[in-house]
Amino acid sequence: MPKKEYNVKNLMRERFFPHIWCPGCGHGIVLGSLLRAVEELELDPTEIVMTSGIGCSARISGYVNFHSLHTIHGRALAFATGVKFARPQLNLIVPMGDGDALAIGGNHFIHAARRNIDITAIVMNNRIYGMTGGQFSPLTGYDKKATTAPYFTIDNEFDVVKISKAAGASFVARTTTFHAVESIDLIKRAISHKGFSVVEILSQCPTHYGRKNKEGDAANMMELYKERTVPMGSKKLEKDPSLIERGVFVDNPQAPEYCEQYEKVIKSARKGRA
Ligand SMILES: Cc1ncc(C[n+]2csc(CCOP(=O)(O)OP(=O)(O)O)c2C)c(N)n1
Ligand code: SF4
Predict the structure, then answer these.
(1) Which of 53, 63, 151, 181 has the fewest CB atoms lying closer than 10 Å?
(2) Dist. CA 21 → ligand 1 center (Å)
């Protein structure tokens, strides 16, 4: 890939810096990939609305020079749905932590996917509640440690890709912070896609998940993303099915988009009245 000079400072809200993230947190890498994606797409920042809930991940909405709404935990997609419905021409981008998206926000997540509303959801999956001190989330998985599971967890995890696909998202992808260039490409594709798009980005929390689960520092955790993930359909999966696949799992541009469908309802209602 040719080296590209970026000018993402224009897309950042510098008055909100320094950021709150711990050294080595993966969320800053996600922010970097997101801004580069927006720059490459040459989007007008005044036509982007970012809604976010609460969490270390959700703080991202403060650092972008777009319209932004920092709302309540788990409700970012509900706010985004309202904005998109009122102004369908705007680009809605919703960064969420795994707790925000799939614990408290799980119901909003599956229904936004079911409606196939044109919103880009970025699930920053660090498998833990980072902001509140390392409680386990629905993405932590079985036999892991957390502040609320000092011995081990007994809950099974959701697979973000499978749940998104089953609920009806029309674009679904997964990558990691180690694969920052791949992340730019997937975010670009997700934003360009008309319909509900999900990009899961595995994003390290060295402070809580890494420390409790003995995964080492941030650099080690990113090495693990390199070692433990493979491109979709890799032959390595035959030998080791525990490897995590990266790539685009669903890309269905034909799926009817919710706001467009609603426009049809409005037209029918107007005709009925005439
Ligand atoms: C209604 C409500 N319940 C709980 C909380 C407390 N809370 C704030 S952030 C958070 C979870 C954060 O985890 P996640 O969404 O995975 O993001 P991360 O901080 O790991 O990036 C919780 C439980 C809250 N702010 N509001
Ligand atoms: S607690 Fe974890 S998720 Fe939150 S800023 Fe620190 S490293 Fe990142």
Answers:
(1) 151
(2) 15
Instruction: Please report which ligand is nearest the Cα atom of 132.
Output: 1
DSSP state string for 7-63: -GGGGB-GGGPSP-PPTT-THHHHHHHHHHHHHHHT--GGGEEEEE-SSTGGGGGGS
Band of the pLDDT at 163, cuts 50, 70, 90?
Answer: very high
Q: What distances in angstroms separate CA 103 from CA 13, 74, 99, 209, one per listed residue?
A: 29, 8, 5, 17
Ligand number with the minimum distance to the CA of 208? 2
Q: Is 59 in the pocket of ligand 2 (CB under 6 A)?
A: no
- Is the confidence at residue 153, as pLDDT, over 70? yes
How distant, in Å, are the alpha carbons of 11, 24, 37, 91, 107 from that of 6?
11, 22, 10, 21, 37
Determine the atom of ligand 1 nearest the C-alpha atom of 125.
16
Q: Would you state the structure tokens that stand for residue 139, as one six-digit string?
A: 């993405």
Distance 128 CA to ligand 2 centre (A): 9
Is the CB of 115 within 6 Å of ligand 1?
no
Q: Is 12 in the pocket of ligand 2 (CB under 6 A)?
A: no
Q: Record the tokens describing residue 27, joined without a space.
A: 């969320």
Find the 121 Cα to ligand 2 centroid distance in Å. Answer: 20
pLDDT confidence bin for 4, thresholds 50/70/90: confident
- Chain segment 104-142, per-residue pLDDT in tens: 999 999 999 999 999 999 999 999 999 999 999 999 999
Return the structure tokens found at 15. 């008055």
Instruction: Please write the tens of the pLDDT for every residue from 56-67.
Output: 999 999 999 999
Using CA atoms, how far apart are residues 34 and 61, in angstroms rounded to an integer? 11
CA distance 247 to 85: 30
